[in-house]
Amino acid sequence: MCRLFIGAVAALAIGTQALAADLSPSPPSRLPALATASPAFVSELRFGASAQDPTGPESDTANLTGEVLSVRPWTAADPALNFLIPRFHLGGSINLSGRTSFGYAGLTWTYDITPIVFVEATIGGAVHNGENDPVSPNREALGCTALFRESGSVGVRLTTNWSLMATVEHLSNGGLCSNNRGLTNVGVRVGYTF
């Protein structure tokens, strides 16, 4: 009985292999692959230092800065048109002398002048821990806790991944509050692109 069972299993296995060899291969599936690798959300990290408002009451102080940039939500077929598609950014600036520090978010537009040299423009908003009304002689009167933030940069790509940028940023309330001295910082940043 045991031999009969083993023989039946062997005959079934041999028959299945022979039948499989006679079948033509199935046509390739037209459905897209479900497990595709998607790009990471973060495209670049930046770190640097800046001089706090060189012509204002908080001059002679320095900041440490950091920023994260997203990938573009989509890209254009023409690389020159990619300038029109912004990246999202999130960053912060910490004043090393205990003066005004802030966090910010917004949109960044990058335009490649050459494969090495690029320029950037940003617009967004910021919140700060500084003073809104003039209280201390060595502090800015920013008027509102929530401010507009704009910046411009000129950069060079040192390698495929590393870049160096000179940046000017300005924060103000746009005249929405009684005081609007604003804060303008000038600095240098290093970026690492993934």
Describe this structure in words.
- 11% of the residues lie in helices and 44% in strands.
- It is mainly beta and 194 residues long.
- The chain has one domain: Porin (Beta Barrel).
- It has an eight-stranded antiparallel barrel.
- Strand 3 and strand 4 (102-112) form a beta hairpin.
- It is elongated and about 50 Å long.
As a percent range, the share of strand residues is: 35-45%
User: Helix tally?
Assistant: 1
Q: Distance between termini?
A: 67 Å
Count the domains. Answer: 1
Strand order of the largest sheet: 1-2-3-4-5-6-7-8
Overall pLDDT: 84
| Class from secondary-structure proportions | mainly beta
**Low-pLDDT sequence parts:** 1-24, 31-38
Topology-level CATH name: Porin
Q: What sort of overall outline do the alpha carbons produce when their principal axes are compared?
A: elongated
What share of the residues lie within helices? 10-25%
Which sequence of SSEs, written as H and E, runs from N to C?
A: HEEEEEEEE
The strand count comes to 8
Question: In the CATH classification, which architecture applies?
Answer: Beta Barrel
Rg, rounded, reads 29 Å
Name of the CATH class: Mainly Beta
| Biggest β-sheet description | 8 strands, antiparallel, barrel
